[in-house]
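Name: TetR/AcrR family transcriptional regulator
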Amino acid sequence: MPRPKTMPDEDVLTAALLIMHASGPEGLTFAALAAGTGLSASTLVQRFENKQNLVQRTLLQAWDGLDRLTSELSATLPMTPEGAVDLLVGLSGDYGGIETYADGLRVLREDLRDPALRARGARWRDALSEALDERLAGPSGPVPGVGLLMASHWQGALLWWSFDPQIPATDFVRQSLHRFVAVLAAGAAGPLTA
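Structure predicted for TetR/AcrR family transcriptional regulator:
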């Protein structure tokens, strides 16, 4: 079968992300990507110049996808605490089993190493926190910071699930977030004391 002459960058970067998840960031080479896309390695080098650019563009495209999913869920879910839970559960759906989650953590390492990718993650954190703040607003309006607190709890729940993945991640997350919302509601009824 002849090699394809062209392939959109988006498709090439999708293939690159699959390689990163399957083989780790170190497994993403121009040779591996050429094998995965059918394009020549020299064509890929011409497009992306070096591995650092390839990894960065791959992960920026992944952030674009996460931004889109967050916006889509935010546009369709109610402005209620249950809507906040559903938003985070919806963002948990791609983790699948423990192996997929663990592979994602290997890829996350690359996000943390690159200042541009860290900045992108910080922008997503802010947008997600705002969407959660709106859904957790009390009678007097949003409580600044509560969305970030809930997002932090969500990430912690995923981590705790990973040590004992007896049920699907989305079920564990939903149960944990319902407990979190219940504590928030109890705190709204009266202040917690230290």
